[in-house]
Amino acid sequence: MSPENASLGSKIVVLRYRFIGDTLLTVPFLRELRHQNPESEIHWLVGQDAYDLAVGCPYVDKVMAFEPRRLGFWKAVQHLKAESYTTAYVLKRSFSSALMTLLAGIPSRIGFNTDHRGFLLTQRVPYRYQEAHEAQCLLDHLPLSNETNSEDRRLCLETWIPEVNAKRAQKMLAPFQGPRVVLHATSTNPAKTWPMRHFQALATALVLEHQATVFFLGTPQDKLYYETLCLELPDEVQGRCVNWCGETTLLDSMALLTGMSLVVANDSGMVHMAAATNVPLVALFGPMDPQQWRPLSTNATVLTHPDLTCRPCRMKITCSHQYPCLTELTPERVLQACKAYLTS
After folding, report:
1. pLDDT for 6-55, tens place per residue?
2. pLDDT per residue over 116-130, tens digit each?
3. Closest alpha carbon to 50 in 268, 208, 244
């Protein structure tokens, strides 16, 4: 049975306090939710790390950073209760998120029927992760729209970059001529990372064969990783690598992506940031299923190991943590995918 639409004039909360990629993939749901509920007040609860990307969203009335682990469970419940929400879309799949909405007294609670939490919800939604993209799974919480939008339009991502960040990015990139390529070699989960030696080989080829400048964007914690990556590069390649980790805000990084010729990224939030800006993208997938997590972009190439029957394992590792799905994905194959964008 399709989830019932929230009534007009209601006060709706959307709980999706997770990683950057998860936050961006919530945008198609929010766009449709606003379309179906034009008179409702809609609040979006996101993780602190992703707050800056969400705060400009035009489909909600309020964005709030929500971190129950830091705030404490009962304080989080009290926060929800104080808002007197009438409907909660519990898009986070945890047991605790559903329990919080029940204890907060929210009358209508709609969410995935996962993690043994179905009895806490008033509307249970099947989680079709093996057959549909994550963004489509989120849209399953809403009735089908009468409008005939294409899947690309219905699932497309958006981003909202303030002018101050856009101007700063333009100024930062102005000195760099020729192809500009972001290599994103980190991930929240190390099991999703292409080997450092492969990124080193790719960086070398991009600089020496395509006269590219290579950029690294990320957190202060990522800076040392890229410094280590660069140590073993030839001097002429090191001179064309720019490590801006920890020197830019999340919105600065998003703005910088719009000025890039190409992004090559592990399965991570960067994949979805690049998709949101429609910059050319080569995304490297190992254990996870691209059918569920692929970048929602018409300007992207997804690369996986072509021959392994064990992938996608969805992190149910059976290879003694050797990850042939990534170690055997060669720099030569990735470089060929890059050339299609750099020479077009």
Report:
1. 445 699 999 999 899 999 999 999 999 999 999 999 999 999 999 999 99
2. 999 999 999 999 999
3. 268
Token duo for residue 320? 């003694």
Question: Which spans in 8-112 are helix H?
Answer: 20-24, 27-36, 51-54, 68-71, 73-82, 95-103
Q: Which amino acid is at 101?
A: T
Written as six digits, the tokens of 60 are 């909600």
Quote the tokens at residue 263: 């992004």
**Cα gap 308→245, rounded to integer Å:** 34
DSSP-based three-state secondary structure for 262: strand
List pLDDT tens digits, range 170-216. 999 999 999 999 999 999 898 999 999 999 999 999 999 999 999 99
Distance of alpha carbon 214 from alpha carbon 42, whole angstroms: 41
In the β-sheet with 281-284, what is the strand arrangement from edge to edge? Answer: 241-243, 213-216, 180-184, 262-266, 281-284, 300-303
Please measure the distance between the N-terminal and C-terminal CA atoms of the chain and give it in whole angstroms. Answer: 47
What are the residue ranges of helices labelled H in 258-323?
269-277, 290-293
Report field, pTM of the whole predicted structure over 0.85: yes
Distance, in Å, from the CA atom of 149 to the CA atom of 135, rounded to the nearest integer, reads 15
Q: Please give the structure tokens belonging to residue 156.
A: 């497309």
Alpha helices in 188-295 (DSSP H): 196-210, 220-231, 235-238, 250-257, 269-277, 290-293
